[in-house]
Design brief:
two-stranded parallel sheet, Helix Hairpins, 39% helix, Chitinase A, domain 3, 2 domains, single chain, alpha/beta, five-stranded mixed sheet
């Protein structure tokens, strides 16, 4: 099985969600099913069918999270020596060489990517262009609106 990189923070978020599903959501849906069953005829019981559907979703998500955590290669970038190179987990400050606009991204696993939180997938075009580069390097990224050029201003392992 192929190991999937994930940051320590991302792995903890998955563990928290898994814990909540197992300790809160699963017991609650089991109670809802039992209560709906007590109302009699199940064939026309919308509450029962909704609760069973919810139970299926919860069990599926639990399996998905357990699988992701089982295949995860947890990388705690704060424990690695800062060589100044862009690596998985690094936070990178960039300057758009055309507009001068500053942007900051953290390179994370696919499950953690959230552009609004400035976390980009290691598989994204910009992350692929950045990995292995150092402060002062220029990178060209193929963007939907055409090629963009960025200068790496800082690389932090936080």
């Amino acid at each position: 099985m192929k190991r999937v990189p994930i940051t320590a923070r991302g792995a903890e978020a998955l563990r928290v969600e898994l814990r909540k599903l197992k300790t809160e959501d699963r017991p609650n849906v089991i109670k809802a099913i039992a209560e709906a069953r007590s109302h009699g005829d199940l064939s026309e019981n919308a509450e029962y069918h909704a609760a069973r559907e919810q139970q299926g979703f919860i069990e599926g998500r639990i399996q998905e999270l357990e699988g992701k955590l089982g295949n995860a290669e947890i990388i705690d970038v704060t424990q690695l020596p800062n060589t100044g190179k862009v690596i998985f987990g690094a936070t990178v400050d960039l300057e758009d060489e055309d507009s001068g606009a500053a942007v900051t991204y953290q390179i994370v696993g696919e499950d953690e990517a959230d552009i609004k939180a400035q976390r980009i997938s290691v598989a994204s075009p910009i992350a692929r262009a950045l990995v292995g580069k150092s402060v002062g390097d220029s990178v060209e990224v193929a963007a939907p609106g055409g090629a963009r050029n960025y200068e790496i201003i800082a690389v932090r392992y936080v």
